[in-house]
Design goal:
Length: about 1000
């Protein structure tokens, strides 16, 4: 039995070889293959009826009259010339320009396809060339991802492969609409897009990222959406590369690729998108140079020169009536077939209307005229194509040609709304393929996270965005063992891969990069994020060691920012994979993730604001700097949970040594009350540790028998308790010349003198008791009235530390700063940050006698060792905005609840507004002339200011957060006083913010 099985097996193997050898001998050029059709590609297209079909523009009587009138006056040269669409450049010299002018004026070419150059240069040349044309020229451009495919200084939309991940087709139609608007502004009539190739071959050298993917329905639906958008603006689309260039392994620019599919496969899969777009009104088609034995039995005839393909299949079987372009005739896939003139005749006989990028127009024209005289080209055949061209020139508006207006051209092509759409596109494209144990979004900001970069391209926007969420440590080493040893210190490793953002560039991992990636994943908890085409993942055979896997598709600044947002949950992941990655991830794979309420980043336009109006902030900031109201500042605006404006201006000092950056720290002065002491107090209130009517004597024994024992918690926080405003405690500790007395200070730390006030200045440790006793014994107003007092929050710090048995700085770090990612917020910043990262506040000549940089400006807070309830926090605008967003979200941030909505509402209540006290519990709510706002904020708005030149304000009605940080006290507080306040710089910026809100 065993021997019989072996004999049968050997016979089967021999039979297999005999059959295959026989096939090889019969067909040396290609073997027809009926490639297995994936489930995704089995759907049958149901064509629309003739009545249901859409048309780009219906013919009209006026169009017919114009076409007939022009044609009747045309010479043979002019008729033949209309068939030529010539390559033109705006980055070449006068020799090239004069050559094009000659072709237009003397050879009557019908159109130009522009390649590399710039928008203004191209527009000028277009006007010059059109002026030479008797019949206005068609102008075309390959703008598959916008004008930037060919032109510098123009906008680049995502590649089709990236768009293929987007499920919302309306977004893709918006892309098309934008492309159409830009083409029209440039005097372009044809956008040679969309690409309809189904990229079923990952090794395709020329399509790849230019395809919407490997699913015929996905390709068809996205191409339809893009076409609708472009053609809605009166710009003609050209579907390409007919009948399907998606499964080729050869670049048709260099040779003639062979497509070995059966006729049935071609009809079922490759032609599917064409059928759909023809029904939706596609204006034109570009025919590829392909060898397709199943469609053209004669050997090595390119499809562009095949009557079977261009006429029988495209026009007769599929019923296409629009313009038909060849692909570029200079490409080797065509030019190797026949020489100049003979090639043009062949493609005309095949059924094409327009010769794209011919090699030699004069020589080809001469031959075509000879062919016409010999009867090889008939008048009927010529009229068919030329009249069709004229019809489409009318549809494109060339019957009423107008030159391109060069005014504001660059500005019009790069309007702010494009970035707004780009953010939305990437928010919908970024795809999560693996999410073990819901590692994404990253919720725990207190874990230690390392970052490793792979790839040679830029990653600055990605790492900057990551660091806006939590502490991220960049780790690198050329030795993998040393690298993994270093990574042992971390709980999570984010690895990102960055390749140059060019569609045709290789984006593959190097062998060394793959080795590093595998070793890192084996030894660590890893999230891999690739900023490259999905096919980059193909060499990775095993993804088991990766906990998270993200495809961000392209290495652009916006894709990097959005991807970081998705990793940390500021945006949800929605994308689906447009192609398969081996057997690991199939087409349409993609895991949706939740959005948690962390600040994200977006354009003003996406949040109903105007970036143009917000840009006016620049002038106000510069006015403040020029007027020496502050040497530098940070300004941040957020709306609806997204930062829409974040800029730093000026320098740390007027010497202009250190420019202000977004991560630099400022002494936020009294904003410390709102972002540190207050939220901790709110938590105690939320836990019923204190009520609005709790008396100060109950809260702190020190006040039990004082004149303040009956002050309620509510009155204390409303500054309605009659406390004095403040006391210059330091004056009791200095001599007549303003220098620290030895009784209270030491230059180096000694026993009982370890509380650091500034460089080489330590105060006795028990002076805190003196301060508290002074406050307890201080007088209070007999009249119940509003008086802002620092004592309120000095008292509250004492209360917090007594109740919790923890220091305020530890409480704030543990309860808030660490968990919401306020990585740059701290007391005594010199313990964590370099001095050059901290803006100085003053050159002190009256107490500490030194530059105050990294030490708190407030004298009382300094005497408390830099930590006080009313001052001491250093932060930057981004971190302050996080706490303000937490308040705006009524106690919730990053998926965590810190206190109840009811608690927030209580603290944001104006209890004594009727008495003229416009404050909440710890929040400033003053909106009048004496308040810190522009008087355009709503009654529900709240915030705080800081003595050193700061402001943080939230308006729930408009869902806005505004943060302004500066060091206006540097180098000193002059006789002019607070010029920043007098000139209403912060208020004027706030006014701009409200003016920018459009909806």
């Amino acid at each position: 039995m065993k021997n019989a099985i072996i004999k049968i097996g050997l016979f089967t193997i021999m039979l297999f070889f005999i059959i295959n050898c026989g096939v090889s001998k019969k067909s040396k050029t290609a073997v027809e293959t009926n490639k297995p059709v994936s489930t995704e590609n089995k759907e049958v297209y149901i064509p629309k009826t003739q009545a249901e079909k859409k048309h780009f523009l219906q013919d009209s009587d006026a169009e017919n009259r114009w076409t007939d009138s022009i044609y009747s006056k045309m010479t043979l040269d002019e008729k033949l010339g209309q068939l030529f669409f010539v390559s033109a450049y705006s980055n070449k010299d006068s020799v090239h320009v004069n050559k094009i002018k000659d072709l237009v004026a003397n050879y009557k070419v019908g159109g130009l396809i522009f390649f590399q150059g710039g928008p203004v240069r191209q527009a000028k040349l277009t006007n010059e060339y059109q002026a030479k044309a008797k019949i206005p020229l068609f102008i075309g451009l390959d703008a598959e991802w916008g004008l930037s495919m060919r032109l510098d200084s123009t906008y680049a939309y995502p590649w089709n492969m990236t768009l293929g991940a987007i499920q919302d087709l309306d977004l893709i139609e918006k892309v098309g609409r934008n492309m159409g608007i830009e083409c029209k502004r440039m005097g372009i009539h044809f956008n040679f897009a969309p690409v309809l190739d189904i990229n079923t071959n990952p090794l395709n050298p020329i399509i790849g990222n230019r395809s919407f993917g490997e699913s015929k329905t996905n390709v068809a639906n996205r191409a339809t959406a893009l076409m609708k958008g472009i053609q809605s603006q009166g710009v003609l689309c050209t579907g390409k590369h007919f009948p399907g260039h998606g499964d080729t392994a050869v670049d048709s620019h260099k040779a003639l690729p062979t497509v070995s599919f059966t006729k049935e496969h071609m009809d079922e899969v490759e032609l599917y998108p064409y059928k759909q777009l023809f029904d939706e009104g596609l204006a034109s088609v570009m025919v590829a140079h392909l060898n397709i034995p199943s469609l053209e039995p004669k050997e090595n005839i390119p499809s562009s020169a095949s009557y079977n393909v261009v006429t029988d299949l495209l026009q007769k079987q599929l019923g296409f009536e629009g313009l038909i372009f060849t692909d570029g005739l200079g490409m080797k896939g065509a030019s190797n077939f026949k020489g100049v003139g003979d090639l043009e005749l062949a493609v005309l006989e095949a059924g094409n209307d327009i010769f794209l990028c011919p090699d030699d127009v004069p020589a080809a024209l001469e031959k075509l005229k000879t062919f016409f005289s010999e009867g090889k080209i008939t008048e009927e055949r010529l009229a068919h194509s030329v009249k069709k061209i004229l019809h489409y020139k009318f549809k494109a508006g060339l019957n009423k040609y107008k030159p391109i207006d060069l005014n504001n051209l660059q500005k019009d092509l790069n309007s702010p709304d494009k970035d707004a759409l780009q953010y939305t596109l990437y928010e919908n494209a970024v795809t999560i393929l693996k999410n073990e144990k819901e590692i994404l979004p990253i919720k725990d900001l207190e874990q230690k996270i390392a970052y490793v970069k792979l790839g040679e391209d830029l990653n600055s926007d990605f790492i900057t965005a990551l660091k806006k969420y939590t502490n991220i440590t960049e780790v690198s080493n050329t030795d993998i063992d040393a690298l993994n040893e270093e990574l042992k210190k971390y709980d999570l490793v984010i690895v990102s891969y960055h390749k140059v953002n060019k569609a045709w560039e290789k984006q593959d991992f190097s062998s060394n990069e793959l080795f590093f990636l595998n070793k890192i994943a084996e030894n660590n908890k890893v999230i891999l994020d690739i900023f490259a085409k999905p096919y980059t993942l193909l060499p990775i055979q095993n993804f088991d060691d990766m906990e998270g896997l993200v495809v961000s598709y392209q290495n652009s600044n916006i894709s990097q920012i959005v991807s970081a947002e998705i990793l940390f949950g500021a945006k949800e992941a929605k994308g689906k994979l447009p192609v398969s990655i081996n057997e690991n991830f199939k087409v349409n794979a993609g895991i949706n993730t939740e959005k948690i309420d962390r600040l994200g980043f977006d354009t003003p336009e996406n949040l109903g604001m105007s970036s143009v109006i917000l840009s006016k902030i620049d002038a106000i900031a510069q006015k403040a700097i020029d007027g020496k109201m502050a040497p530098g500042m940070q300004v941040l605006v957020a709306r609806k949970g997204n930062v829409v404006f974040q800029k730093s201006y000026g320098y740390h000092t007027y010497n202009k040594d250190v420019k202000v950056s977004n991560t630099d720290l400022y002494d936020v002065a009294s904003i410390s009350k709102m972002i540190s002491t207050l939220p901790n107090v709110m938590q105690l209130y939320d836990k019923n540790k204190v009520t609005l009517e709790t008396k100060l004597g109950t809260m702190l024994p020190l006040f039990a028998k004082s004149n303040k024992q009956d002050i309620s918690f509510k009155d204390l926080l409303n500054h309605y308790a009659g406390l004095i405003a403040w006391s210059p405690f330091y004056k009791s500790t200095i001599d007549a010349k303003g220098y620290p007395l030895e009784k209270y200070y030491r230059k180096i730390p000694e026993k009982n003198f370890t509380t650091k006030v500034a460089d080489s200045l330590f105060i006795r440790n028990d002076y805190h008791d003196t301060i508290m006793k002074f406050i307890a014994d201080s007088p209070i107003s007999l009249k119940k009235e509003y008086k802002y007092s620092d004592f309120t929050f000095i008292i509250l710090k004492e209360y917090l530390e007594r109740v919790t048995h923890q220091k305020l700085e530890d409480l704030s770090q543990k309860n808030f700063f660490n968990s919401i990612g306020m990585n740059y917020t701290t007391y005594n910043p010199l313990l964590r940050f370099d001095k050059n990262e901290i803006a100085p506040t003053e050159i002190d000549t009256y107490f500490r006698h030194q530059l105050i940089q990294g030490y708190v400006h407030d004298m009382a807070a300094a005497m408390e060792g830099g930590v006080a309830g009313h001052a001491g926090v250093f932060s930057n605008a981004m971190d302050v905005a996080k706490m303000m967003q937490l308040f705006l979200q009524k106690g919730s941030y990053g998926g965590e609840r810190y206190f109840s909505e009811a608690t927030f509402d209580t603290f944001n209540t104006c209890f004594y507004c009727a008495q003229g006290v416009e404050r909440g519990l710890g929040f400033d709510k003053r909106l009048g002339k004496d308040g810190p706002t522009c008087q355009c904020a709503s009654a529900s708005s709240f915030g705080h200011t800081g003595f050193t030149g700061n402001m943080a304000w939230v308006d729930p009605e408009n869902e806005t957060v505004y943060v302004f940080l500066s060091n206006r006290t540097y180098p000193e507080i002059g006789e002019e006083g607070n010029k920043l306040a007098k000139e209403k710089i912060r208020e004027d910026i706030q006014k701009i913010i409200y003016e920018s809100i459009l909806k």
